[in-house]
Design a protein that fits this description.
The chain is α+β, with helices and mostly antiparallel strands and 516 residues long. The chain has three domains: 2-166, Alpha-Beta Plaits; 188-275 and 315-375 and 386-440 and 448-471 and 478-501, Bira Bifunctional Protein, Domain 2 (BirA Bifunctional Protein, domain 2, 2-Layer Sandwich); 278-311, no CATH class. The protein is 32% helix and 25% strand. The protein contains 16 helices and 23 strands. It has helices at residues 19-31, 71-90, 139-143, 146-162, 172-177, 200-206, 223-241, 257-263, 265-268, 283-296, 301-306, 321-326, 376-396, 454-458, 478-489, 498-501; strands at residues 2-11, 48-55, 58-65, 94-107, 120-126, 129-134, 137-138, 185-188, 210-212, 219-221, 247-248, 254-256, 275-276, 313-315, 331-332, 339-343, 347-349, 364-374, 401-405, 429-434, 443-452, 462-463, 470-477. A hairpin with a 2-residue loop joins strand 2 (48-55) and strand 3 (58-65). Helix 1 packs antiparallel against helix 2 and helix 7 crosses helix 13. It starts with a strand and ends in a 15-residue tail after the last helix. Belongs to the class-II aminoacyl-tRNA synthetase family. Type-2 seryl-tRNA synthetase subfamily. Its main location: cytoplasm. It is an enzyme of class 6 (ligase). Its cofactor is Zn(2+).
Length: 516
């Protein structure tokens, strides 16, 4: 794959006096800036400025790259450091970035239709390659990832056509950032006795612990299931949350779309959320809705759609969203760090589409969400502590587990452009899974993440001395932990470890003649 870009950087005034510094910057960018985030064995794919000239207040550039460090990303990366170099000494700012010509060559088995995609000027199939040329692109277009979307579409179609085992565009940054191959198992428990055979979901329904709710991926969790859940929650609160001095908050679960946009979640997983619309202030329309409902005895969905505004919220898909918004545009002092908060007040909502099944893949589930903010060292140490304590708790509960390098850090999904100043940890995500006997893969019960400066940059969270701030979060999936627990220990309390058994309250399931 080859990217060939001809672009311009428009300065606020003529920059001839800064020619020497600009020359030095471009040389250093080729040797360092453009290599950030590119694996050592893939540096031939990194961007390089191959031609350039300065004409008054216009810096003309030709940038060539392969797949891993794309030319348009390199152009965006140049803006901030150029401003830092030219501003203080020469009082020159970067006024505008423009791409005049952009050609991308992508290997493909056949012609792929991109004619309906925005900003594509021409597309041809030549010598086993798609050759795509773009219209003139402004900086805003690049930051909206219009080029990446075209590339992603072509790659996806190429994979579908050729059934090639190629790396999907969404995974590129994840694999660049993560220093250990995603999926690598980095920890495993000893073997423990298993007292249950079968499907925990079927058995829970059979014994009246749960009942299917009409909504897809939803369940009614009865007294016995909830009593066990509270017992395990209490153990985590005592042994992990309180020990690490996290303080409880209650956060909104209805998240405004602009907040999700700042998180970059919409660029990565827009299809994985529930969107919410408020009703219009139109009494006459809703009067018609009620009348039609009374007459037809069925909900007039089309009439209801007419009464709804455009979506303006999502139901919280990560549960940590309000934390970053709370600190947005605030200034902190390093001496007061780290800040450690948690929320266990409600549901996390995700649209699993066809992936919903049983109690382990549901559309709404309970979690204890721990989020923290601090120096890079503090943030990584806290993440490691939450993971280590979770693993030790599983051992104390005599649950088999393994921990692997996560392959889908949610916050990286939308981060297609790694701007200068964005720092990523060596391992963005650890995922701890409880073994499900008979299943190929365990159930993911704990997700321990370090975000680097992704959210502190995106939400403009500052330290008063301009020191670097990182964030991290660990989600303890209570519902999934219960699923793994029941899959191994079963429903007979006599087989449960004492630390769990002694905390479970005695409850009674409602007596119903026709259920379970």
């Amino acid at each position: 794959m080859k990217f060939t870009l001809k672009g311009e950087v428009l300065f606020s005034k003529e920059a001839d006096e800064a020619l020497e510094d600009i020359t030095k910057f471009i040389e250093e960018a080729n040797q360092d800036l453009f290599l950030k985030g590119v694996a050592p064995d893939q540096r031939d794919d990194a961007s390089q400025v191959v031609k350039w000239n300065l004409a008054g207040n216009n810096l003309h550039l030709e940038i060539v790259s392969g797949r891993r460090g794309r030319a348009h990303d390199a152009l965006l990366r140049m803006k901030k450091p150029l401003t830092q170099i030219l501003g203080p000494q020469y009082h020159i700012g970067v006024r505008k970035i423009t791409v005049q010509d952009y050609k991308i060559e992508i290997p493909s088995p056949e012609m792929i239709d991109v004619s309906q995609m925005p900003y594509v000027e021409t597309a041809q199939f030549q010598n086993g390659e798609m050759v795509i040329e773009f219209e003139k692109l402004e900086e805003g277009d690049l930051r909206k990832h219009v080029v990446d979307r075209v590339v992603k579409h072509v790659l996806a179609e190429t994979e579908r056509i050729a059934s090639a085992e190629d790396e999907d565009a969404d995974d590129i940054l994840t694999r660049q950032v993560t220093k250990i191959e995603p999926g690598t198992v980095v920890g495993r428990s000893p073997k423990f006795p298993v007292f249950f055979e079968g499907d925990p979901t079927e058995e829970a329904a059979k014994q009246g612990w749960v009942k299917k709710f009409p909504g897809k991926g939803q369940w009614f969790y009865g007294p016995k299931f909830t009593a066990l859940q509270r017992a395990i929650e209490d153990i985590f609160l005592e042994v992990l949350v309180d020990k690490l001095e996290f303080f409880e908050c209650t956060w909104p679960k209805l998240i405004p779309i602009p907040v999700m946009n700042k998180m970059r979640y919409l660029e990565g997983l827009p299809e994985g959320m529930y969107y919410c619309s408020a009703p219009r202030r139109d009494p006459e329309l809703f009067k018609k809705f009620k009348n039609e409902l009374l007459i037809k005895k069925e909900v007039p969905i089309d009439r209801l759609k007419d009464g709804l505004k455009d979506p303006s919220y999502v139901l919280a898909p990560a549960q940590c969203e309000p934390f970053y918004e709370f600190f947005s545009h605030e200034v902190l002092d390093e001496k007061d760090l780290p800040i450690k908060l948690f929320d266990k007040s409600g549901w996390t909502y995700r649209w699993e589409a066809g992936g919903a099944k049983g109690l382990d893949r549901v559309h709404e589930f309970q979690r204890t969400e721990l989020v923290w903010l601090g120096t890079p060292q503090q943030v990584e140490e806290i993440r490691d502590a939450t993971l280590e304590i979770s693993q030790e708790l599983a051992n104390q509960m005599e649950l088999e587990w393994y921990t692997e390098i996560g392959d889908d850090p949610f916050y990286l999904e939308g981060r297609k452009v790694e701007e200068r100043g964005i720092e990523f940890p060596d391992v963005p995500k650890y995922e701890m899974r409880l073994v499900v006997p008979g299943a190929e893969k365990g159930v993911a019960a704990v997700s321990a993440n370090v975000h680097g400066t992704h959210f502190t940059e995106g939400f403009s969270i500052k330290e008063t001395h301009n020191h670097t701030l990182w964030t991290g979060c660990t989600g303890i999936g209570t519902t999934r932990w219960l699923f793994g627990f029941l899959a191994q220990k079963g429903f007979d309390e006599a087989n449960w470890p004492e630390m769990v058994r002694e905390r479970v309250r005695k409850v009674r399931t409602p007596e119903v003649l026709t259920w379970p």
